[in-house]
Amino acid sequence: MNDSGSGGFEQRLADIVGQANLLTGEAVGEDYAHDECLTVEPAKPRYVAKPATAEETAELLKAAGEHRVPVTARGSGSGLSGAARPRPDGLLISFERMNQVLEVDADNHVAVVQPGVTLAELDEKTAAAGLSYTVYPGELSASVGGNVGTNAGGMRAVKYGVTRHNVLGLQAALPSGELIRTGGKTTKTSTGYDLTQLIIGSEGTLALATEVIVRLHPRLPHGATVLAPFGDLDQVVRAVPKIIASGLDPHILEYIDNLTMAAIVYKEQLSLGVPDEVRDASQAYLVVSLENRDNDRLHADVEILGELLGALGAADVYVLEGPAARKLIEAREKAFWTAKSVGADDVIDVVIPRAEMPAFLAKVRELATASESGAVGCGHAGDGNVHLGIFQKDPAKRRALLHEIFAAGMAAGGSISGEHGIGHAKKEHFLELEDPAKIELMRRIKQSFDPLGILNPGVLFDQESQ
Amino acid sequence: MNDSGSGGFEQRLADIVGQANLLTGEAVGEDYAHDECLTVEPAKPRYVAKPATAEETAELLKAAGEHRVPVTARGSGSGLSGAARPRPDGLLISFERMNQVLEVDADNHVAVVQPGVTLAELDEKTAAAGLSYTVYPGELSASVGGNVGTNAGGMRAVKYGVTRHNVLGLQAALPSGELIRTGGKTTKTSTGYDLTQLIIGSEGTLALATEVIVRLHPRLPHGATVLAPFGDLDQVVRAVPKIIASGLDPHILEYIDNLTMAAIVYKEQLSLGVPDEVRDASQAYLVVSLENRDNDRLHADVEILGELLGALGAADVYVLEGPAARKLIEAREKAFWTAKSVGADDVIDVVIPRAEMPAFLAKVRELATASESGAVGCGHAGDGNVHLGIFQKDPAKRRALLHEIFAAGMAAGGSISGEHGIGHAKKEHFLELEDPAKIELMRRIKQSFDPLGILNPGVLFDQESQ
Asked: Of the four listed, A341, B25, B139, B256, which is most buried by Cβ atoms within 10 Å?
């Protein structure tokens, strides 16, 4: 950054957002120094600005460009890749004041929201219209802007897709200080390059979303969750393609290995009604949720599902009703926190073709054993998205293990992250393992948006000298 | 292009694809001079090369770059924007020899195909596995590569989405002559910018798909089609959001205005069982198709749908069975050909938020009347994608009318094309009406892929001097 005139820059920021919405020095709280990533060192930013409007956000970017100050965007700080970790010499733009649901449009099945809106707030507003924004990463305090940044997924992606499939349009501030609108309240367009899709998942390196048009789906009134313990993990993951092929269209299809389930049950004090002898003989669990607008059809489908699970090797099938079902799903959502609380040193989320899960998980076990590490977890089985808690205190050994796990995932036709993103945390692996021709192309795309390199430098790519 | 040494270039092309797969001069047939767009002048390319592999395709691009020869890609030539219309001094890469379904992977519900595979061929291959590639633009001779180029849609998009939602990965040749692989057999990834999504819909201006991983859905065995005549067009389009909200999840939801229906019935010699007095009193029709894995549920849903349509103002409801249903859907698919055969001067496909259809169609009628033109049609009502046949012989008047219709669509929150693309045909309107900041950004993205500007110059953007 250009240090001369940083006082002038500070005044400029204050002029844009108002003195009360600019934090510097001691006033910058610890929360702004990190997201929830376990491995990226916190760093307090020099400035925190809280814009109230898209125009203020654009002005902030313009000022940052003129002063060559790096800019990081922050929603709720619940990301797992360190992409919201600011730079010590930088400006953090916190969207906490841009937190309004501007419109719930029931005819077009969309909502228009500001980036700081949390999923909990959006869920409440859409419920009133009988609709739902179906992107549900583990944390309901997550913001929609953060969803866009990381292309968040979550448990319902098996039926409804990830953020990419549920964001139809954006207003976005470019590093130049221009505001653009992309897409709209339509599910399709073939009118030039799809800037919406390019910005989604770019982890704050291309443009900052200042308004998001999200797709809503009818909220189906009837649901049930089935828990099926299996004697072995392979059986669980082998069952997944068959369940997808059944046409029962589950909106949740998760596997949980026995260590993770034990931790979840213990931490959340869950009672699942699974007898001790079944639990002791189980290596893994499948959790399948169905929903329907018709209760009779739901029950008929649960019956079919139960028979199918039995045929696929489940030791038994437990239909969880009401609170017990909700509790299990909530506990699964908190798997990250459970992993953290039992001492995981990292949490990763490789994605592979779902039919590759048995071979991939076998490979992971082999790699973990060889490195004297732990690698246990759960995952969005329907999507082939494997979430692993990594237990290895030694940074060099952990780094080597992660590298091998990521390489194995890519060799299986997958990629490093299904929904957490690369951020700072996995950049080194990304740059080492990804095709250099693609990295080079992505760098040039980055340059086409951000020639001065002010947006989240050091995320995805190494910081270039300015 | 650099004219010196074009003999050397020709030899180079022959070395790459083999003399038998290179056409020049008189050997270049008329078919290569155009796609199905009504308004873009045909032009025979100087060279037609038919690569057999991705590597040959990449080599062709490398050679074209070195010789500064413009390159246009062609699948089946069924596009409607002129994006496959080559340049007289250019190279046309025809994917007709790269027409293999490489794999139908039933566990991961994907197929891996070469770009020249037609939808008819893919449908046959996937049917054997009980699966379906659900992108169905009007023409089953269309190629998957062409789908990718234009982000094709079709009638089933209301349930299954457009090409963008059904292509999970690509192998693509870059203008540099490099081959990259993007995405994979997974429905999600958050690992760098989404190059798959950026290339889809780029109309052959960024990279050429040499292999496509498409998503497949279970092929549901039971289906029914309901035809509902309405006394007025507004009622039809007002009914659409209610049908979507019902949760009946139709896979086809089309409106057809009475002139278009008359032309379709006449051309296809259809007998729909609609009494003369109902037909004479009808201004428009809704066509709704439901599918289910269970026949009883299907019939129950058809009943609910019938009641809903009655409540929404349908004059009557006709359930079409088997051949009659298929015939109507096929006829609707051929609406473009019908429009062409009755003398339409252009066919456009503005997309708007579906709830805006009544106001938009009223505006279109007003604009058409004022310009003494005809504008009739049908459309993917569930998507807000309005297909209009434009009847106006005078090019200046037609141009002015189109400009106003596109502007009205954009003012209603939509865009110029929902699925046909911009190509050469609508470029002028695109450049006039679209936000200059977005055009500039798209130009820079184009440059990041194709610094020499060899890929389909003149499509989307005006040709720049080289």
From this structure: B256
Among A462, A464, A453, A465, which Cα is nearest to A204's?
A: A453
| ipTM value > 0.90 | yes
CB A48 within 8 A of CB A94: yes
Q: How confident is the model at residue A5 (pLDDT cuts 50, 70, 90)?
A: low
Q: How far apart are CA B335 and CA B389, in angstroms?
A: 9
Mutation site, B37, B178, B193, B427, interface A, largest A CB count within 10 A: B193
Q: How far is the C-alpha of B351 from the C-alpha of B373, rounded, in Å?
A: 21
Residues with Cβ < 8 Å from A318, sequence gap 6 or more? A226, A227, A228, A272, A273, A274
Write the CA distances from A94 to A114, A148, A425, B395, integer angstroms.
Answer: 12, 15, 21, 52
B367 touches chain A (CB under 8 A): no
Round to whole Å and give the CA distance between B220 and A133: 26
Mutation choice for B interface testing from A190, A253, A431 by most B CBs within 10 A: A190
CA distance B234 to chain A (A): 15
C-beta separation of B113 from B211 below 8 A = yes
Interface of A with B in 295-354 (CB under 8 A): 297, 351-354
Question: Could you tell me the domains of chain A?
Answer: 6-97 (3.30.43.10), 101-218 (3.30.465.10), 222-333 (3.30.70.2190), 343-433 (3.30.70.2740)
Tens digits of per-residue pLDDT, B277-310?
999 999 999 999 999 999 999 999 999 999 999 9
Residue A416 carries which DSSP code? S
Ranges of beta strands (E only) in B101-166 are 101-105, 110-113, 131-132
Cβ-based contacts under 8 A for chains A and B = 248
